[in-house]
Amino acid sequence: MKPLRPMKLGVVGHPSSGKDTFAIYLKDHYGFTHISTGDFIRFYVLENNLGEPTRPLLQQTGNFLREKYGPDHLMKLALKSQVERIVISGLRNTAEAEALKKGGGKLVVVSVPIEQRYKWAVARGRPGDNLTFEEFKKQQEVEGQSNDPNGLNVNAVIKMADYVVDNYSNITEFHKKIDDFLSKIL
User: Fold this and answer.
1) Which residue of 6, 63, 90, 119 has the lowest C-beta tally within 10 Å?
2) pTM of the shown model
């Protein structure tokens, strides 16, 4: 592993952009701890027997948790980790991004054209990924913006990003872009 100074990074992007791939690469090659806010929501769904963890159920549950505990609740849970290097994926609203930045973190957007993300989503095969292209686009619109402070507003979070890493090609190229990105911010 390559030594790094302490660092907190949050990763944002539209559905199937490679946020978790980015985070896992940092974990495997740079000694980061990866926390996904979506995992908190999935755990809550399973722990409370709410059903199959489909994207709509996860969105609804995430909104419920933000409503009940505050719009930055999921980020505050993630930031409780006492590790020196953390990468948090799954930021979905501006309060989460603000909490990350207030906690000393930086925000990275993983940028990918929608057509490529759709291909990856279909190939990945998670529950709820078996959508038509039009349904996938609609899903992005739903997650993209909301006037509800507890709702999903990925477009606004993307605008708050400190850095952009493009994921337009294959996994090897993406890993190289991550390496280049880290060498620049260190």
Assistant:
1) 6
2) 0.86
